[in-house]
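Predict the holo structure. Ligand: WQD.
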Amino acid sequence: MSTKKKVVVTGGLGYIGSHTVVELMQQGLEVVIIDNLCNSSVHILSQIEEIVGEKPVFYQIDLVDISAVREVFEKEDVDSVIHFAAHLLVNESVVDPLKYYRNNLVSLINLLEVMNEFSVEKLLFSSSCTVYGDTKQVPVTEETPVFKASSPYGTTKIMGEQIIEDVVNSSSTLKSVLLRYFNPVGAHSSGKIGELSIGKPSHLFPIISQAIESESVFKVFGKDYQTPDGTPVRDYIHVQDLASAHVAALQHMEKSSCSIDAFNIGTGNGFSVLEIIREFENISKKKLHVTFEERREGDVEKIWADSNKAKEKLNWTPRFSLEEMVRSCLVWENYRSSKEW
Ligand code: WQD
């Protein structure tokens, strides 16, 4: 029985990473965070401490610097790794693909090399539904063809999965689970952590929430899609449900003899942009000023998950409703805007 029980969480001060760190620590696991703070704040550490009662170990390093990564594994007795750290904006990746290929792929390759040097044998990889591209087969299962993604961001996830699969197949001990997230939204029920996009928000929920608060115009990117109301459909999943899926996947890896497996982590429900706007207006009791613009480069028309495989094999079920996703987002945005990060 390995005495190593530490989980390295790369990007652990980020949005999904911080919620997963809280979940892991509440399950009694010891966490070591690696984060370069490019899209998070060191203040999140004390926020995590306020929720859990203790502060996780934190190294501010960039995964593209392999010697810095090696130093962490020399100092810490690592049992497994959850790899979140990556640039993740679909539309930004279209504008600056090399930023995405360099950061997302070099980071992963460095991590795999150092894991091999230190015989760390379990890797949970933060993948994405963007690997399915603009598929017309919805809901998507894990067998839905993974082919040309609709953005360089999605391509780094496809390449990342392939790199991991090849390394797992070349190893007799490495195991990996690939979690394909749909659209992570909402914030922790404590109200102390949430999506802290540094600079301008880039995802739907924080943008709507800030537009409601500031009574500014919200731009809908496209109303001519083949969907019931013409706006794109997505599978929005509460970030705490996403976090619990990581704990379930880690426990699954402990027991499973399967060397590599992929799981869709979504709710199985699709909502359009206009439906999300209506939910925000109902809960905030405020009207949103909306304009309709051209489609956004890299956007897909509609995608939502068939997540039965995760429910059955990971014994995981999403618990939070759309109302709780929206409400927790509004509460967090109000708290976030009142603090200096
Ligand atoms: C959602 C919808 C926009 C802003 C995200 C992440 C990616 C991946 C998948 C995990 C789209 C529309 C948005 C606005 C709008 N997640 N929109 N006006 O693009 O589906 O991808 O989830 O890996 O990391 O980027 O999410 O929140 O950017 O957009 O109309 O001002 O909202 O067109 O249809 P997306 P999003």
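The radius of gyration is 19 Å. The longest strand covers residues 122-128.
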